[in-house]
Amino acid sequence: xxxxxxxxxxxxxxxxxxxxxxxxxxxxxxxxxxxxxxxxxxxxxxxxxxxxxxxxxxxxxxxxxxxxxxxxxxxxxxxxxxxxxxxxxxxxxxxxxxxxxxxxxxxxxxxxxxxxxxxxxxx
Length: 123
Hints:
- The chain is an alpha+beta fold.
- The protein has one domain (1-123): 4-Layer Sandwich (Double-stranded beta-helix), CATH 3.60.130.
- It has helices spanning 2-6, 14-18, 25-34, 68-82, and strands at residues 9-12, 38-41, 43-45, 52-54, 60-63.
- Strands 2-1-5 form a three-stranded antiparallel sheet. The chain has a two-stranded antiparallel ribbon with strand order 3-4.
């Protein structure tokens, strides 16, 4: 599986990812101009450590050279693998906590189960 994925390009298509939230065709066209589909290697090599990281998520539209239908089973498989409990860190926030991560090798998501009335500072 690693050798298959290592040669693929993930295509992120804003229209497919966010189009369901935006219905106005003019707004969709404007968003697509600002965010055209873009391909990235499925395996990202950290430029300092050399460690390899999977660069595929639910936001992956398809793989370059494959249709969405052909890509979907592999996208699902990779996302399910990446989000298995043994591959996930879930932080339980306490006052004064500081959490840092390297975006070059980390999938991250705020689940929204925190007190949104409290101030959050993100850089």
